[in-house]
Amino acid sequence: xxxxxxxxxxxxxxxxxxxxxxxxxxxxxxxxxxxxxxxxxxxxxxxxxxxxxxxxxxxxxxxxxxxxxxxxxxxxxxxxxxxxxxxxxxxxxxxxxxxxxxxxxxxxxxxxxxxxxxxxxxxxxxxxxxxxxxxxxxxxxxxxxxxxxxxxxxxxxxxxxxxxxxxxxxxxxxxxxxxxxxxxxxxxxxxxxxxxxxxxxxxxxxxxxxxxxxxxxxxxxx
Length: 222
Known about the structure:
9 helices, single chain, mainly alpha, 86% helix, elongated, 0% strand
């Protein structure tokens, strides 16, 4: 199973690197959403510091939504996904590997880029570090839960819109606790509890989402 997992991850990463425009588009959207906020609300330092965690998390959420169709769309278009569904290999392992590859090309770059935007919002170092840690712990939820919606709406004409409607309510808990961890640091309170809840949400999604994704793909293929 480990060899299968690594093979699918390697394949999806190679495909993602061949289509760098998708990754760049996601990061560009993430950057644009964040940079527009100071232009809209002004450059008042304290206000920007207060807003920064929520703005970064909302931008990460929207960027993740933008990238969800590419998890399964290409494989569905060329028939590879159907072969994966009907193969003797465990579909849950395959979809978990595909989601992991998506997180590596979306969640990890977003987390790294957050350091630059922390400087732009003039966040203290401790708040910036906690914000990055919360994203690293919470972005797997965006990929795992989002993949369920992407699988359910696979092949539909308005799939992207339906995916957003399906997964946005499920993103709310990780958004609250992920952004809240940095807020706790700003008021001199330990963010450990918020980070632990964020990590717990990722573990819960990791345990349940692969089975839901596999079932959704079988429904969509049929």
